[in-house]
């Protein structure tokens, strides 16, 4: 059997595993063919072939792996949110792609401000379009999906407050959480502190991007100051033992995205990724994609990378899938049902 055949056989094994995805951005989940279609419909000037378009919106082997280059892909991606139909299609396809990869439960996060900007759509309309499209696609493809509203650190506090309260008002429509994302290296979280605390009191769960391009102190602040239940990435947590102990004591879940961390320059190589070190430190780690289209991966690829490249035991993968289910933002009874179903289906 050739190396390619072995990899394909192994990937097929990981595709068969029922999965839980806690950290996937809608804006990083667009299909290339869909982008080309939208560009033609709306007269967007982009390269007319898939390969050339790919260089603008997906990480290439020749790219410098830095957070600036990674975030730059979103500059082109934001050109495509041109109509309600485009946003509907992008959302439906993100759910369909997850279902094809045997994702049983997904929390899809989206940034209303980013989706609204190209055509200045009202934020409440954008949120409702994503909710409606998600519900219909989830029912069609047999996957449970909940939504997390995301705000960026470089945006205004006023916009963040609008998004937070739109999400609170839609708690019964599948909105479950609020996320703070964006350029952690250059923009602080402190201005958003009050909004996130109020959103949590109003019923939203909180997940914060921290310890990705910033130090372990950001993880500590997110947990202790904002009340984050989960940390997006958080791979630099190991730089400070006090933060490790705080996260371990609180049972804070880390939404780790191995390939993204490598491609965005957080780690220098896949082999030096701290996934196993985080597990060995007793941290509650989950495995996720971040932006599957930008990284050209699926969650199956991430499971493959964790086990085949980082040598995480398959028994540990099973534990991490269940840990993701336990860390999801479902009500307790629904969470128990999900865990029970996964326990029955997981055969690793």
SSE inventory with pairings:
Blueprint: H1 3-15, E1 19-25, H2 32-42, H3 50-57, H4 67-77, H5 84-100, E2 103-110, H6 112-117, H7 123-141, E3 144-152, H8 157-169, E4 175-181, H9 193-201, E5 205-210, H10 216-226, E6 230-233, H11 241-250, E7 253-256, H12 258-263, H13 275-280, E8 284-287, H14 292-295, H15 299-309, H16 314-326, H17 332-345
Parallel strand pairs: 1-2, 2-3, 3-4, 4-5, 5-6, 6-7, 7-8
Helix pairs in contact: 1-15, 5-7, 10-11, 16-17
Structure write-up:
- The chain is of the alpha/beta class and 348 residues long.
- The chain is built from 17 helices and eight strands.
- It has helices spanning 3-15, 32-42, 50-57, 67-77, 84-100, 112-117, 123-141, 157-169, 193-201, 216-226, 241-250, 258-263, 275-280, 292-295, 299-309, 314-326, 332-345; strands at 19-25, 103-110, 144-152, 175-181, 205-210, 230-233, 253-256, 284-287.
- The protein has an eight-stranded parallel sheet with strand order 1-2-3-4-5-6-7-8, sandwiched between helices.
- Helix 1 crosses helix 15 (299-309), helix 5 runs parallel beside helix 7 (123-141) and helix 10 packs parallel to helix 11.
- The two termini are 23 Å apart.
- The model has no long low-confidence stretch (mean pLDDT 94).
